[in-house]
Amino acid sequence: MKRFYQLLISTVAVSSLFAACSSNEEEVILDDKQPREVILDMTIQTDIENPQPLSRASQVSNDHRVEYLEAPDRSFEYVSTLRVIILHENTDNSTNENAKYAVEEMRLVNTNDAGVPISDNLSFRLLANEWKHIIIIGNEASLTLPMLASGESASSVSEFLNKYFAIGNVISNDLHERLENWTVNLPQPVNGVTPNIFYVDENSRIPLTESFDIKTIEPKAGSVATQSDNIQRVQFFVSRLAAKISYTFQSSADSKSQWIDGEVLGVRLRYLDEKMYVMAHNVRYYPTKYLTKVINGVTTNIPDTGNINPSTRTRYITGLSVPPLNMYRTITTMFDKPVKIKHYDNPDSIPVVGPIYFTESMARKSGDHFEIDVQVRKDGVTKWLGYKSMTSNILSFIPTYNQDDLEDLGYFNAIARNSHTKVTVSFGGSDFRVYENVVPYVGVNLNPIFGTDVETPAPEN
Asked: What pLDDT score was predicted for residue 254?
């Protein structure tokens, strides 16, 4: 039976500590004649303050692989800003035919590297007993603008969101659809080399996004608006908006490869999608994003009252969608320093090239694979050796998520956002082989995780 390989996402978390009410805020006694209000107190999972997280491994995936800790790889993977946009039903009768939503709350907070808000929090006073669509965007300065409609203008994503998603704005269905279908592209090659997506300089940060649908609670009549009965605590998560890959090169002690003592100069990875969604489309998680329901004998993952899955376990991506009319791209990476081809007695001494960041991608049809080529040099001869397929440990799923479609559609291979594919290139004979390991991510308390592993942790007792 074909295995569903599950990619574990790392989550970035921002803890929000809520004080019942500030000193200059009146306590309001609610009666049946007053508008109901609740305090929505958010936690957006990060984990970054603990400088010495405990190493641990646990078996949580249903294919029984062990999870490994990974340390932050570089400042590129930290959090600088976090924006929360809360939409609710548009009640303006003159506009609601063409505008489902209006902006109830919107806040942009600066954070420290841990993603913890500076001089702010993530508590919001909202109308009770109604549906909210909550959009979370981290590091928005790294994103390119979504499509602008006639008459709209903005020079940056921050200006666009501040202008068109300000509190009280009515959000046209067209504007909401453009936000939902917002895409970003792989950078164009520079002198034949493909830059990392979102990376410009040392101040660059990788974006993070996710959205949720929840329903606020109904406060009790006669209660105080700030008391604990009227506080609704929710835990959200975000995922980083790129996939990444790293490479190691080695040979066995008895390898007869003609390239032993030569060098690897670069690598090519092909059949990647040119563009990817900013807001995740049809992304499936394990554990699920929402609690599941059984409807007519079918397990269904539908948002409903109190339906956010409270699981604190790290989540695997088990399926995704990519934008239509996408083009395949090849990314070429040439190394600043060539890598020696030889046998390494100490695995810790094997050089690692990367990480290299690129778009979330999915094969066009069942049976298609992503492919890797390496450029080598020895005795004055430089050669690309020819593409090899990545066939192991890659995300594989039925695109409709309906098991009945397996016979017609088959399994599609993909490389998901927020995943790290570690590739080992092994030289033997006149050729090479590739082995892939998609590294699962573990959310360590107060430590944002999206880097290469620093050690193999010991199992928990």
From this structure: 78
